[in-house]
């Protein structure tokens, strides 16, 4: 749809008059609309190449989803509904839901940009009185909490199928006679610019580009600064319980920060590291129950399907019980995040990581180039993962698998922190192999935790619920343990793939220190 | 995509008014709708103020070298396009007869529209011809206006028999009373008795009304110039009933 920007110093009334006279236009209609561009907090729809807009239509809400690259609205899907639900899974079954559900997953749909616009529509008719082209003169403004910010007026030529010549004539007239030029940016991008919002700005990915020669203490601070950004970006959404991913990203960033402090050794003073480690562990502990319960509630429907169908209704009391616990856990979380202890931790942490590194340091790794320190640490973690995994047999207790899982997590974090220091293809291969192993270990651990948690639930439920419910819980726990056993049986194959010669060779080539072992801290 | 045909063997029963107003109602509900004017008289084309012109003639619609897309015109209403007719549509039967499978020509042509439209409504000419056989074979439902007179009922029976011969029980026939004049005793009686004999009948009745006849003056669907009229509401109800029946 050809769109022209009206310069701010132009006389819009004069342009309209020239347009009406020059193209013999008639008034068609005038509307006041409010469009709300909707996406998730982490811009999942934008990343999937989709644009979701909600606007009032005939007393209801019209949701339309268009591919971002669609110039003429091709591929648009629409849905009319009374209110915009928070989650895609709450939308009625429809083409629109099918289009967005996989991309959005468990994230909430949030109005990211709201534009209010007065649109005056003019029409050109042929000899039969048939409209052959419409022109819309829009004066939009972006809605902010402080009020409205006017945007540059626009003239849109709305083409009608089968009347291409009229569209071309109108477009030529606007360009040549009115001297206007086509808009380079769409409305959403312009509105975001006015709001100081960058489309796709938030991502829980680290995406760091670290200079390999920079000092290790400075590089570690860079990693921690990026992680702090993620922690702070997710804090409000976590407390407001907008969706479960806020807490997930928040906790991952906390855990990664702890890992950066613990794994990159000899770059910060030990008392500082110990203090922040202690406080960050506390944040992890106070937010853990809420996350666990988020996961149980997300999975409750699948969990119910594990037991035989006649037993499924007996598991109904699980949901309200979990919801009560969930509310309690979030109450504790909000209290913790609002506490002076947390506020002080964050303030002190910011001061520390934003402070310039000392010119001289007695710490063994602080002044060494990060590429060397990172290689040593990754190599150490990689070797440990191979050793831990290699020692696991069919008879090993599940604690051994859990230990390996933690080792793998640490290795993964290191690989992600320092990804930019090494060849991208090689890093993708190693991280890919590690991910498969982590998925297996994660499932084994999750199934164990779930089984233990649900088994522990029988006790408080014993007093209130029927024997049938307790029996269904027993069957569910049994099924979870069977699934865990099946995943454990797969472990040997998954680990062998991770530890194969190709990956080992690659890791050795990338990370093994060359006769520098003596300089490593003990 | 649903292909619905407004069809009757008999002429003058309100087919075009029905097709135009149902297409409008469908588009109002945001279904991407195409009204295909198959009647060479071109009343639907006239109502939407579109020039009666098919690029390359009817052979470009039904023949081997189809270019349907090129002849489609947007109407003045959102989500509603029109495939106009012109005099060459008189030769539709001859063109279809040249195909390898003459009774499947329309079916093949409509397949090309699947990705662009949710609803395609056919405004059919009143006849029994090769084209109407094509319609019966291609459509998922026939919307059949009947005036409450004995002659109309006879044609409904003929149509039902024809459809069963051609498609077995597969095709949905959705008859409804059109141009009902409650001042006439026969109309009142038939409106009471027929639905008990024909349970497939739609319950919405379209009255005989001069406001509907004025579509020719306004050259627009009824709801576009008399949105709040009871007649416009009837067409909207009729569309909702059709929609439910065809699972849209």
Descriptive terms for the model:
heterodimer, A: 522 residues, alpha+beta, Hypothetical Protein Pfu-838710-001, CHAD domain, 10-stranded antiparallel sheet, 10 strands, 55% helix, 15% strand, globular, B: 248 residues, alpha/beta, 7-stranded mixed sheet, 12 helices, 7 strands
Question: Could you characterize the architecture of this molecule?
Answer:
The complex is a heterodimer of chains A (522) and B (248). With 522 residues, chain A is an alpha+beta fold. Chain A has three domains: 193 residues, Hypothetical Protein Pfu-838710-001 (Beta Barrel), CATH 2.40.320; 166 residues, CHAD domain, CATH 1.40.20; 145 residues, CHAD domain (Alpha solenoid), CATH 1.40.20. Helix content of chain A is 55%, strand content 15%. In chain A, strands 1, 2, 3, 4, 5, 6, 7, 8, 9 and 10 form a ten-stranded antiparallel beta sheet that branches. In chain A, helix 6 crosses helix 11, helix 7 runs antiparallel to helix 8 and helix 7 crosses helix 12. The radius of gyration of chain A is 29 Å and the shape is globular. The model of chain A has no long low-confidence stretch (mean pLDDT 91). With 248 residues, chain B is of the alpha/beta class. A seven-stranded mixed beta sheet of chain B has the order 3-4-2-5-1-6-7, with helices on both faces. In chain B, helix 1 crosses helix 12 and helix 5 packs across helix 6. The termini of chain B are close together. At the A-B interface, loops of A face strand 3 of B.
């Amino acid at each position: 749809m050809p769109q022209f920007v009206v310069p701010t110093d132009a006389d819009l009334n004069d342009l309209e008059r020239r347009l009406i006279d020059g193209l013999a236009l008639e008034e068609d209609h005038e509307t006041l609309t409010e469009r709300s561009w909707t996406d998730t907090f982490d811009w999942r729809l934008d990343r999937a190449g989709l644009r979701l807009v909600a606007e009032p239509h005939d007393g209801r809400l019209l949701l339309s989803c268009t591919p971002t690259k669609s110039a003429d609205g091709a591929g648009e899907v629409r849905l009319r509904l009374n209110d915009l639900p928070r989650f895609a899974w709450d939308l009625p079954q429809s083409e629109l839901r099918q289009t967005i559900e996989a991309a959005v997953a468990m994230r909430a749909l949030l109005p990211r940009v709201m534009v209010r616009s007065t649109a005056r529509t003019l029409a050109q008719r042929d000899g039969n009185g048939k409209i052959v082209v419409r022109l819309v003169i829009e004066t939009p403004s972006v809605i902010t909490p402080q009020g409205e910010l006017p945007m540059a007026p626009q003239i849109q030529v709305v083409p009608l199928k089968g009347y291409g010549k009229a569209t071309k004539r109108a477009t030529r007239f606007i360009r040549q006679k009115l001297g206007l030029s086509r808009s380079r940016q769409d409305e959403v991008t312009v509105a975001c610019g006015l709001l100081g919002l960058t489309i796709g700005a938030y991502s829980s990915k680290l995406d760091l580009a670290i200079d390999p020669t920079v000092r290790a203490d400075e590089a570690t601070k860079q990693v921690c600064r990026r992680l702090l950004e993620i922690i702070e970006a997710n804090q409000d959404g976590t407390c407001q319980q907008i969706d479960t991913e806020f807490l997930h990203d928040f906790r991952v960033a906390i855990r990664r920060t702890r890992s950066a402090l613990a794994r990159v050794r000899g770059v910060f003073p030990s008392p500082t590291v110990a203090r922040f480690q202690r406080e960050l562990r506390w944040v992890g502990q106070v937010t853990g129950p809420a996350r666990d319960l988020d996961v149980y509630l997300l999975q409750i429907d699948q969990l119910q399907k594990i037991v035989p169908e006649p037993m499924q209704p007996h598991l109904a009391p699980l949901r309200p019980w979990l919801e009560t616990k969930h509310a309690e856990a979030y109450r504790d979380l909000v209290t913790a995040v609002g506490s002076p202890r947390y506020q002080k931790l964050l303030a002190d942490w910011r001061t520390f990581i934003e402070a310039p590194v000392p010119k001289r340091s007695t710490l063994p790794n602080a002044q060494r180039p990060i590429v060397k320190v990172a290689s040593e640490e990754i190599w150490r973690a990689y070797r440990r993962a191979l050793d831990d995994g290699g020692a696991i047999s069919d008879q090993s207790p599940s604690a051994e698998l859990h230990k390996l899982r933690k080792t793998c997590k640490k290795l993964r974090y290191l690989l992600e922190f320092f990804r930019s220091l090494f060849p991208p293809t090689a890093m993708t291969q190693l991280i890919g192999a590690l991910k498969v192993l982590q998925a297996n270990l994660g499932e084994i651990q999750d199934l164990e935790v779930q089984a233990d948690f649900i088994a522990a639930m029988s006790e408080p439920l014993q007093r209130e619920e029927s024997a049938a419910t307790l029996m269904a819980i027993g069957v569910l726990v049994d099924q979870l343990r069977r699934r865990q056993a099946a995943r454990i049986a797969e472990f040997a194959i998954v680990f062998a793939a991770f530890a194969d010669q190709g990956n080992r060779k690659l890791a050795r080539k990338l990370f093994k220190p060359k006769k520098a072992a003596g300089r490593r801290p003990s | 995509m649903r292909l619905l045909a407004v069809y009757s063997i008999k002429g003058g029963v309100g087919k075009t008014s029905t097709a135009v107003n149902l297409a409008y109602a469908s588009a109002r509900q945001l279904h991407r709708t195409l009204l295909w004017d198959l009647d060479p008289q071109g009343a639907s084309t006239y109502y939407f103020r579109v020039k009666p012109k098919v690029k390359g003639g009817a052979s470009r619609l039904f023949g081997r070298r189809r270019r349907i897309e090129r002849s489609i015109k947007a109407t003045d209403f959102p989500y509603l396009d029109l495939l106009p007719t012109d005099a060459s549509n008189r030769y539709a039967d001859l063109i279809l007869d040249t195909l390898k499978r003459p009774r499947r020509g329309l079916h093949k042509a409509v397949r090309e529209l699947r990705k662009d439209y949710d609803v395609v409504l056919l405004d059919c000419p009143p006849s029994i011809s090769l084209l109407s056989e094509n319609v019966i074979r291609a459509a998922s439902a026939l919307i059949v206006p009947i005036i409450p007179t004995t002659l109309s009922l006879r044609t409904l029976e003929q149509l039902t028999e024809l459809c069963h011969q051609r498609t077995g029980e597969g095709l949905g026939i959705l008859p409804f009373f059109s141009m009902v004049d409650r001042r006439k005793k026969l109309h009142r009686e038939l409106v009471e008795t027929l639905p008990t004999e024909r349970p497939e009948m739609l319950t919405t009745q379209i009255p005989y009304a001069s406001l509907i006849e004025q579509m020719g003056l306004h050259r627009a669907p009824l709801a576009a110039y008399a949105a709040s009229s009871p007649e416009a509401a009837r067409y909207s109800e009729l569309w909702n009933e059709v929609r439910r029946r065809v699972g849209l």
